[in-house]
Specification:
The complex is a heterotrimer of chains A (105), B (177) and C (86). Chain A is built from 3 helices and no strands. Chain A has one domain. Chain A has 105 residues and is an all-alpha fold. Chain B is globular. The chains are: A mainly alpha (105), B alpha+beta (177), C mainly alpha (86).
């Protein structure tokens, strides 16, 4: 198998996984019962989706410097996402939004 | 070992400048995608940014211990993927398996930066999300309280301590609220 | 590869649509903020995918700016939320 084909197949797999995690994150945002559980879906799934898409794009670019730039963008999103996640969860706690603990939906 | 000094001497600030400048220059190089002519602007800006960053730093940051950093990166990569998979299947499953709870975890790690770093790391790992950080505990929202959350958090804390080259005292335990 | 990129872009747009549903439903301002956070991440991914699709590599810089702004939106929201409560 030629090298480019191998790269392409890996990229397709990464893109498919990326789409899956983006969708799962949003489905969680819609289905989960409260702010905190929705925040779980958002921070974890979407960052993984972005990471997988970036890895695929980095493979397609075939350039180390572009790969490094995509990694930098992803790291910024992770750090910003984790901080935003804490700030939002903390402000929800401070404004007295009680976590859902089961029962009716 | 990892006690964070509250003040930082001018000499120490100066000592940090070269490393910081190299780091800033590297970021410029990556952001401009290795555009050599742009270095005419990039070198002065990287120097200015490094100077500003060193001058404004309120106190000494805990140093990073390289072998620990590599172990942490591997641990974080594997577990953030597991975190994504875990929450994705909970969201997509026909019956969402959720048993959320708030857990209080007594902190062993010292220093303000390592603590914030620990709290942020928690949010990226499977089923945990930090929601409040106080002087001695971190409050964590967990998706599934049937899992051994305290043990998991203790493992994460050890990894973070390793990243900063610190040792942790044995744990006395925490509790589900 | 073009088709794969187009499909991925469409899927990401779909997640944005689901986010709009959450904005509509709320119920709290914090829930709506979650959608804004989703748009931040999706926006970065979409910009990168479209950049590859169109060959406009300058869009990578735009994604970088989106990533940086993502941090600020949460800070702005929290500051405003506290200000309203106090």
């Amino acid at each position: 198998m030629p090298w480019q084909t191998v790269i392409d197949v890996i990229t397709y797999a990464l893109f498919a996984a990326s789409g899956f995690f983006f969708l799962a994150g949003s489905v969680g945002l819609v289905r989960f019962p409260d702010v905190y559980t929705r925040l779980h879906a958002l921070t974890k799934s979407d960052n993984l989706g972005l990471g997988l898409a970036s890895t695929g794009l980095a493979l397609q670019s075939g350039s180390w410097i572009v790969a490094a730039k995509l990694l930098l963008i992803w790291m910024i999103v992770i750090v910003a996402g984790a901080t935003a996640c804490y700030l939002v969860a903390n402000s929800a706690r401070n404004s007295g939004i009680e976590p859902w603990t089961g029962g009716d939906r | 070992m990892s006690e964070t000094p509250t003040t930082i001497t001018p000499r120490e600030r100066l000592r940090r400048l070269p490393g910081r400048a190299v780091g800033m220059l590297l970021v410029w190089f990556v952001v401009t995608e290795a555009d050599i002519p742009s270095l005419v602007i990039g070198v002065p800006i990287a120097l200015a940014a490094a100077t500003l960053s060193v001058a404004l730093q309120p106190r000494s940051l805990s140093g990073v211990y390289l072998p620990g950093a590599i172990r942490f990166a591997r641990f974080f990569a594997v577990n953030s993927v597991l975190g994504g998979i875990d929450v994705a299947f909970r969201a997509l499953g026909p019956r969402m398996r959720l048993a959320p709870a708030i857990v209080h975890y007594p902190l062993r790690i010292s220093g303000s930066f390592p603590r914030v770093f620990f709290a942020n790391t928690i949010s990226m790992l499977p089923g945990t999300l930090s929601s409040r950080l106080t002087d001695d505990t971190v409050e964590v929202h967990v998706l599934d309280c049937t899992r051994p959350v305290i043990e998991d958090l203790a493992k994460v804390e050890e990894r973070v301590a390793d990243l900063f080259g610190a040792q942790l005292s044995p744990h006395e335990g925490g509790g589900v609220l | 590869m073009t088709l794969a990129l187009e499909i991925l872009a469409t899927v990401i747009m779909l997640t944005v649509a689901l986010g709009i549903y959450r904005i509509e439903r709320g119920p709290t301002g914090t829930d709506r903020m979650l959608s804004a956070m989703l748009f931040g991440t999706s926006g970065v991914a979409l910009t990168l995918v479209l950049g590859e699709l169109t060959g406009l590599h300058g869009l990578r810089d735009m994604a970088l700016v989106f990533a940086l702004l993502g941090a600020l939106t949460a800070v702005a929201f929290v500051k405003r939320a506290w200000g309203a409560d106090d």
